[in-house]
């Protein structure tokens, strides 16, 4: 029998908007801060398909500032992860959230 002193307690209040057109309601939702950092890959699909612009537009309607860190590479290196962590810490450590 394995003995362990580990414990775990998790609370994740989540409100999910799902379905056609629901992104258009994002601006009316209670949000956890006034700044949002999008951490995305360095690929093109998030921008090319309009998802990023539409989500930023909704957050701007809600009075939320947005910034994008688009330096996540496939199979990220430690340096890549460090750059993302540096961006998060320097820009969003208070009053912000990461998307």
- The tally of strands reads 3
**Strand residue percentage:** 15-25%
Which structural category fits the helices and strands?
Answer: alpha/beta
Largest β sheet strand count, sense and barrel closure? 3 strands, parallel
Low-confidence stretches: none
Overall radius of gyration: 17 Å
Number of helices: 3
**Shape by Cα distribution:** extended
The separation of the N and C termini measures 41 Å
Mean pLDDT: 85
Helix content bin = 25-40%
Task: Please provide a brief summary of the model.
The chain has 99 residues and is α/β, with parallel strands linked by helices. It has three helices and three strands, in the order βααβαβ.
What characteristics describe this protein?
99 residues, alpha/beta, three-stranded parallel beta sheet, 3 helices, 30% helix, 18% strand
Describe the 3D structure:
With 99 residues, the chain is α/β, with parallel strands linked by helices. It is 30% helix and 18% strand. The protein has a three-stranded parallel β-sheet with strand order 2-1-3, sandwiched between helices. The longest helix is centred in the C-terminal third of the chain and has 15 residues, at 78-92. The radius of gyration is 17 Å and the shape is extended. The protein starts with 34 loop residues before the first strand and ends with a strand. The mean pLDDT is 85.
Question: What layout of secondary structure does this protein have?
Answer:
Blueprint: E1 35-41, H1 45-48, H2 51-61, E2 65-72, H3 78-92, E3 96-98
Parallel strand pairs: 1-2, 1-3
């Amino acid at each position: 029998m394995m003995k362990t002193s580990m414990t775990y307690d998790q609370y994740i209040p989540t409100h999910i908007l799902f379905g056609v057109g629901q992104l258009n309601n994002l601006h009316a939702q209670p949000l956890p801060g006034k700044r949002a950092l999008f951490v995305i890959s360095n690929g093109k699909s998030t921008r090319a398909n309009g998802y990023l612009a539409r989500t930023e537009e909704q957050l701007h309607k809600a009075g939320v500032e947005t910034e994008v860190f688009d330096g996540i590479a496939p199979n990220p290196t430690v340096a890549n992860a460090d750059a993302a962590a540096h961006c998060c810490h320097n820009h969003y450590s208070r009053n912000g959230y990461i998307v």
